[in-house]
Amino acid sequence: VGPERVSAVHLRVRTRLGGDVQGAYTMDSWLRRADGLLLRRSFRGDSRVDAIVGSVPAHEEYELRLRALTPGD
Which residues of 17-51 are buried (b: 16+ CB within 10 A; e: fewer)? Predict the structure, then answer.
């Protein structure tokens, strides 16, 4: 987090979607060991939805990173 090293746990969640929405996503989270504070999260998902206009693809991707351990820094 910024210039500081923080002891963290890495959690990965992989999900497959079925039914009207087909696809999969992966979400990685890094949580501070001391209290579970979310330090970083990345998400990537690809899906396909059957709609009245046909099969519609969707792609989502984002990454969040905590910039400081104290507000306003």
Answer: eeeeeebebeeebbbbeeeeeebbbeeebeeeeee
Strands 8-17 and 54-65: unpaired
| Selection from 31, 42, 35 nearest residue 9 by Cα | 31
pLDDT digits (tens, 9 = 90+) for 41-70: 999 999 999 888 988 999 999 999 998 888
Which residues does residue 41 pair with via DSSP β-bridges, in sequence order?
A: 29, 64
- Please tell me the distance from the alpha carbon of residue 34 to that of residue 42, in angstroms, as a whole number: 21
Q: What is the rounded distance in angstroms from the CA atom of residue 12 to the CA atom of residue 30?
A: 9
Q: Mean pLDDT over residues 3-32, rounded? A: 94
Q: How much is the pTM?
A: 0.81
